[in-house]
Write a structure and sequence with these properties.
single chain; 152 residues; 7 helices; Serine Threonine Protein Phosphatase 5, Tetratricopeptide repeat; mainly alpha
Length: 152
């Protein structure tokens, strides 16, 4: 009984203090990602860097794929379909050098073929990648994109 007599005033003091204390306001947080402004010179610099690395190591499967991906991006930015043909050639060269642990080149090739509306070939790559790694979301995305494009 004695304990409850001490607990009641303590509880009342605690509640009284909470009732009169101003509620802290959380600082405004911007939901937008903070990043530097668009730099139109960045992509050409990146592409030049990958071209330079490929000249230094022409048999590098990784460097071939990086440049192939750059050409796919250049096609998206400029609309020049010739760039996607360059991307296809570079991705195929990358895969000639190395097929094992070179999934990125398969996806770059599939993306290039998709852009060229060669959906059957692009779909084959997606199915091959999904069979290799069923939990691979990129393979599933590639298959769905091809099915959507073909209206399957």
């Amino acid at each position: 009984m004695r304990r409850s007599l001490f607990a009641i005033p303590a509880l009342l003091l605690l509640l009284h203090g909470c009732a009169h204390r101003p509620t802290p306001v959380a600082p405004a947080v911007s939901l937008a990602a903070s990043r530097p402004p668009y730099d139109p010179t960045l992509f050409p610099k990146t592409m030049a860097f990958h071209e330079k690395r490929l000249k230094e190591t022409p048999k590098s499967a990784i460097n071939l794929n990086f440049l192939a991906a750059d050409y796919n991006q250049l096609c998206r930015e400029t609309g020049d379909i010739a760039d996607t043909f360059r991307a296809e050639q570079l991705a195929r060269r990358s895969l000639q050098i190395r097929t094992h642990h070179n999934d990125a080149a398969y996806y770059t090739l599939a993306q290039s073929l998709f852009t060229q509306h060669r959906f059957v070939e692009s779909m084959e790559i997606g199915k091959k990648m999904a069979a290799r790694s069923p939990e691979d979301l990129q393979a599933a995305y590639l298959i769905v994109e091809n099915q959507t494009a073909r209206a399957d």
